[in-house]
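Regression check, iron/sulfur cluster case 490:
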Amino acid sequence: MNKPIPLSLVRDAGDSLYAAQPKVYPREIDGRFARLRLAAVFVLLGLFYIVPWLRWEGRQAVLFDLPARKFYVLGLTFWPQDFFLLTCLLVIAGISLFFFTALAGRLWCGYACPQTVWTEVFLWIERWCEGRRNLRIKLDAGLWTREKLLRKAAKQFIWIALAAWTGFTFVGFFTPITDLAREAATLSFGGWEAFWVVFYGFATYGNAGFMREQVCKYMCPYARFQSAMFDRDTLIVSYDVARGEPRGARKRSVPSVLARGTARAADAAADAPSVSTLPSALSPGLGDCVQCEACVQVCPTGIDIRNGLQIDCIACASCIDACDAVMDKMGYPRGLVRYTTENMLAGRPRRIVRPRTLIYAAILGALLLAFAWGVGHRQPLIVDVLHDRNALYRETSGGGIENGYTLKLVNKTDRVQHLQVEIEDDAPLHIAGASGIVVEAGQVANVPLTLRADDGARWRGKHHVELVVRSADDSIRVEHKTQFFAPEAK
Ligand code: SF4
Ligand code: SF4
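Current build output:
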């Protein structure tokens, strides 16, 4: 059957390449997916705002201390030498995004992206200060009255306070947050801290308060390349054209085209829009879409899902909740707009296991194992031995030969380490002076070390020496090879 393609006329913008975007006023919605998003907002923002305040063995539990080049995550301390683990973590994050996109579409965009999460909160504040959708539209269109001024001022005040708190919390991941709080109380922020608090706060305010869907549409690179990860079995939010068309208003008593809808209580969706009641003579032959526009009104990006899969759709599922509420009111089965796949829409079964998901899963599994192995086998102590650059050797008055070194010890643990330096092989060398070293928790020690051969006449040229550094309780043992120099044979 040939279907009419809906056309919308675009106003001629003359020679300008810029077309102003109409403001989107997403309508409030309740439903299964709205509650899921609410839970995601609470969990993710809860973690963001609370984690910097958690303590672990006397220090901040999660702190990315850039000046000291140390990252603290609970009981673990990551040093620059652990950089490959950070790289591994970033690759895991990238592959996870590929894997979950191939499996479940834009799950990240709809529920977990910071832009979505903060926009949701800024929208709550907007609704709280300015009212529901119709009131907000009226308020924006109306003259500047005292009430409008007060409502707008209240919204701006709360937005700015939340944005400032967000900027402060963000910086609290990089600077001890208790110190930052003290500095905030006395208005004595350092220059960089002040810059990042303002920058991140301003970015939150601008992106979540004003840019909103424009960030997803025009700025987000993920939105551009995610289609490369899609196939016909990827989960998408879609309108069931076969069931919904031809769309049109009708009386509530007209049965669904599926003719199997159980009548659901109309109060299940108190917020659903009213359905117009045209004479029933017009109703026969219609699909299940009652043309109520609820799915369009709730869409945070302002699109109509009935026009098919669009790059602007962030898969938030608000339109599913809205349409389900309408279907409930009509007594039609839910799912006219639903999570589905292109194959399922075409009547074919969904394949979750397919080559691309298997490949992503295999790479992800391998990387996770490598990361876990890397974290589990991190060296708690780094030992570096630098030979004295000024003199290869010294001849002592007693006929012996000495070589000088600098021992660099990095204690990556959270405990003071009492270390002992020994010579591993049977070489007739010994350490001149004390061989015991104490290195404070998380500190680097540079210690001079002298190796001496008492019988210098036996030594000629270059010799390999293996040093062993071990902790008092033998829980740490690190071997390091170096060289011992003596005069060349004459
Ligand atoms: S079309 Fe539906 S799923 Fe897509 S962004 Fe709009 S409301 Fe969300
Ligand atoms: S909410 Fe459902 S019934 Fe209403 S216009 Fe959208 S698709 Fe049609």
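Comparison notes: The chain has 15 helices and 16 strands. Residues 146-171 form the longest helix (26 residues). No diff flagged against the previous build.
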